Amino acid sequence: MRLSAVALLLSVLISSLSPGQGILEAYNTNLKCRCMQETSQVVRIPNIHRLRILPPGNGCPKTQIIIQLRNKTLVCLNPAAKWVQQFVARVKSRNFHSTAAAPVMKKVP
């Protein structure tokens, strides 16, 4: 009886580690997207404080455009909206530079 319980537990453990986990992960890739809802509504340019463009990757299959308004609220924009594409192109053409990454200090033994 004890041997059959161990065998049953071992078979359940092995079946839970099967490659089927990749299927579940493929369906849940949206869990890592920051934007759950996007808007196509026009936002007045003076109200925009900061723009972030997140390319596809790290579990999210789509480009995300996030703006921070002057009142500190975050809004996700629809990248397919015509005005959003024009706005992003205008910002990129002005050659805005992001701040440089902080230098990494190495420990000396």
From TrEMBL:
Q: Which residues form a coiled coil?
A: none
Grouped into one coarse class, the protein's main location is secreted
Q: Which GO terms describe its cellular component?
A: extracellular space
Molecular-function GO terms, alphabetical: chemokine activity; CXCR5 chemokine receptor binding
- GO annotation terms (biological process): B cell chemotaxis across high endothelial venule; chemokine-mediated signaling pathway; defense response; immune response; lymph node development; positive regulation of cell-cell adhesion mediated by integrin; positive regulation of integrin activation; regulation of Rap protein signal transduction
Please tell me whether the keyword Calcium is annotated for this protein: no
Pfam families on file? IL8
List, alphabetically, the CDD domains matched.
Chemokine_CXC
| Location in or out of the cell | Secreted
Give the Chemokine interleukin-8-like domain ranges: 30-91
**Signal peptide (from-to):** 1-22
Entry keywords, A to Z? Cytokine, Disulfide bond, Secreted, Signal
Task: Report the sequence similarity comment from the record.
Answer: Belongs to the intercrine alpha (chemokine CxC) family.
From the Swiss-Prot or TrEMBL record, give the protein name. Chemokine interleukin-8-like domain-containing protein
- Tell me what organism the protein belongs to: Cavia porcellus
- Give the gene name: Cxcl13
